[in-house]
Amino acid sequence: MTEKKHLLVVLGSTNPSKILSVKNSLEKIMKNYSLEVIGVKAPSGVRDQPMSDEETLKGAENRAKSVLAQYPHADFAMGIEGGISKIGDVFLENGFVVVLSKNGEKGIGTSGSYQLSSKILNKINEGTELGDIVDELSGEESVKTKQGAMGLLTKNLITRDKAYETGIIFAFSKFYSDSVYWH
């Protein structure tokens, strides 16, 4: 039996649900590798609650760049950032994922989006972060490190780690799909 090649992926977050989503996603798409996923603190360089797709994407990219600078030997560096966007009068929450290879290539993906209620949006506009609002409304602590707001809103049919898996797989597609689509 051939020994699997080691693959080091460093995520710019210590959030357990984000680390779990990275591990689960990579186990699906990088089956021929021995995976090591490390979560480290990394600054987003954006507001605690990003309020546009552009700001959310920038936060994810800043996190990925920060961890790549800290771990230049990593095969991939990642940033995941949740934020809010507006389409017409509707406000949606989603997450952006940025993957940087040690060779300088970048992959980008997003999670699914879900609508925010005016009740939640009003509290966000007062300066409260979504995670804190959900903790207050649910009576639970640290929801964002567990099922996330999307878990509560979907009665755990789609938890935070599951929601981010889609974005992670999309962001990595550049690195594992047929090169005919990219080069």
UniProtKB/TrEMBL annotation:
Its cofactor is Mn(2+); Mg(2+). Keywords: Hydrolase, Magnesium, Manganese, Metal-binding, Nucleotide metabolism, Nucleotide-binding. Its EC number is 3.6.1.73. One of its GO terms (molecular function) is ITPase activity. It catalyses: XTP + H2O = XDP + phosphate + H(+); ITP + H2O = IDP + phosphate + H(+). GO terms for biological process: nucleotide metabolic process; thiamine metabolic process. It is an enzyme of class 3 (hydrolase). Residues 12-175 form the Non-canonical purine NTP phosphatase/PRRC1 domain. This is inosine/xanthosine triphosphatase. It comes from Clydaea vesicula.
